[in-house]
Design brief:
By secondary structure, the protein is an alpha+beta fold. It has one domain: Glutaredoxin (3-Layer(aba) Sandwich), CATH 3.40.30. Helix content is 50%, strand content 13%. The chain is built from 9 helices and 9 strands. The chain has a 4-stranded mixed β-sheet with strand order 2-1-6-7, with helices on both faces. It has a 3-stranded antiparallel β-sheet with strand order 5-9-8. Strands 3-4 form a two-stranded antiparallel sheet. The chain is globular and about 45 Å long. About 5% of the residues have low confidence.
Length: 228
């Protein structure tokens, strides 16, 4: 079974969704036959390449409710073993990071890509790292097992950019407008950072050749997803 997870490094619910899905996968009887691949999605495609403080950036977008939004996510994250530090978090365009994830998948395989994805999410949400900085990305990639020289050369040029943009366009064509979105076998989609039990149920249903339909997207970061 192939599961494609559309997500953005800058999406807090994508971090929670990843953790919950992994908990479900660990309990799934057919886990050894499941291939997980992360696909790119950008919540803010036109985000600046200049880093900005997360709190200021979110307040400009959502106003006073941004404080409660962060608090809600932080509370839920703690239950999943995630330490969000929104005071230190830096917002920046995530295209470079998505290119790096593409390199990890195509050159090293899905398992390495999954490890890199976890490291990028932690760097962004817990460690206050600028995930638009090439040197920082190279260090993170090296820790995940990628060749540092190869990564540095890759990020210095445009390699992988066309492929990532094509995948971003494909996500739009699929009607994906909120993340995380989990696409099972290219046929069934589940949107949001659902509970682990829900993901486990879907895995079993898909294994039995039945589908699960995602709820309609909503704007902003709702209770389990982030939307444009």
């Amino acid at each position: 079974m192939k599961v494609e997870i559309y997500s953005d490094i800058a999406c807090p619910w994508c971090y929670i969704g990843k953790r919950r899905f992994e908990q479900a996968l660990e309990r799934f009887e057919g886990k050894d036959g499941v291939e997980v691949v992360f696909r790119p999605y950008q919540l803010v495609p036109d985000a600046s390449e200049e880093p900005r403080n997360h709190r200021e950036w979110l307040a400009e977008r959502y106003g006073p409710q941004s404080v409660a939004m962060d608090a809600r996510v932080a509370e839920l994250g703690r239950a999943e073993g995630i330490s969000y530090d929104f005071d230190a978090a830096i917002e920046v365009n995530t295209l470079l990071a998505h290119r790096l994830l593409h390199l990890a998948e195509t050159a090293y395989g899905p398992a390495v890509q999954t490890d890199l994805k976890e490291r990028l999410l932690k760097a962004h949400f817990s460690d206050g790292v600028n995930v638009g900085d090439r040197a920082a990305l190279t260090a993170i990639a090296a820790a995940a097992g990628l060749d540092a020289e190869r990564v540095a050369a890759y990020l210095a040029g445009d390699e992988g950019t066309a492929e990532v943009r094509a995948q971003l366009a494909a996500a739009r064509d699929l009607g994906i407008s909120a993340v995380p979105t989990f696409v099972f076998e290219g046929r069934w989609a589940v949107q949001g950072g659902q509970e682990a039990d829900t993901f486990l149920s879907v895995l079993r249903q898909v294994a039995a050749e039945t589908g699960a339909v995602a709820p309609s997207p909503a704007e902003g970061c709702a209770d389990d997803a982030c939307a444009v």
